[in-house]
Write a structure and sequence with these properties.
With 209 residues, this protein is an all-alpha fold. The protein has ten helices and no strands. The protein starts with 5 loop residues before the first helix and ends in a 12-residue tail after the last helix. Keywords: Cell membrane, Heme biosynthesis, Membrane, Transferase, Transmembrane, Transmembrane helix.
Length: 209
């Protein structure tokens, strides 16, 4: 995030509500994360106690939300440029950037630790890698450097079924890898279609999802 451009691009701070903090987690993206994680967990050839399954999916969902909060913190300056994103909590001034960062980091730590304690540390490590890949590799590194950012960065959104499977079994297998590949191949066309839709919008070349 460019600190120099931040004061000029963000709106005057307003009062944040619970809905603004919820929006930081990108709930629509979280819903896909929950669905694919559930598929991976349900497809695992082992019995998982319903409560443990619930905790595992919750942790994966919270990890996805944490990634979204870190993404909104870092991208506040470019989000302010495009009509579709300028109303988000940080560029609109309702949530301060440091609040979004703190929320993202806190939820990341909570989700990874709880998943490790509830299931296994391999699953927790995969969740930590997923958060890191989305927040650092995609958001901070790829997004402003190459138009192919969504192709490579799509891996982060494709990993939840593998995390769900490993949370249930404690090991890797080909079935969840194929699920990851399916979601990975679906991601670029989805975002390219969105890019075409907003192509004429101010700031679209610099701003992505």
């Amino acid at each position: 995030m460019s600190d120099a451009s931040l004061p000029n691009s963000l709106s005057v701070p307003g009062e944040a509500g619970m809905g603004d903090y919820w929006a930081l987690l990108k709930p629509r993206v979280m819903s896909l994360v929950v669905f694919t994680a559930l598929v991976g967990l349900a497809a695992a050839p082992v019995h998982v106690h319903p409560f443990i399954a619930f905790v595992a999916v919750l942790c994966i969902a919270v990890g996805g939300g944490a990634s979204g909060a870190l993404n909104m913190w870092w991208d506040a300056d470019i989000d302010a440029l495009m009509r579709r994103t300028r109303g988000r909590p940080v560029p609109s001034g309702r949530v301060q950037p440091e609040e979004a960062m703190a929320l993202g980091l806190a939820l990341s730590g909570f989700a990874v630790m709880l998943l490790g304690l509830a299931t296994n540390w391999l699953a927790a490590g995969l969740l930590a890698f997923t958060i890191f890949f989305y927040a650092v590799v995609y958001t901070m590194w790829l997004k402003r450097r190459t138009p192919q950012n969504i192709v490579i960065g799509g891996l982060a959104g494709a990993l939840p079924p593998l995390v769900g499977w490993v949370a249930a079994t404690g090991s890797f297998a080909w079935a969840p890898v194929l699920m990851v590949a399916l979601v990975f191949m679906w991601t670029p066309p989805h975002f390219w279609a969105l890019a075409l839709f907003v192509r004429g919008t101010t700031g679209w070349r610099r701003s992505r999802c």
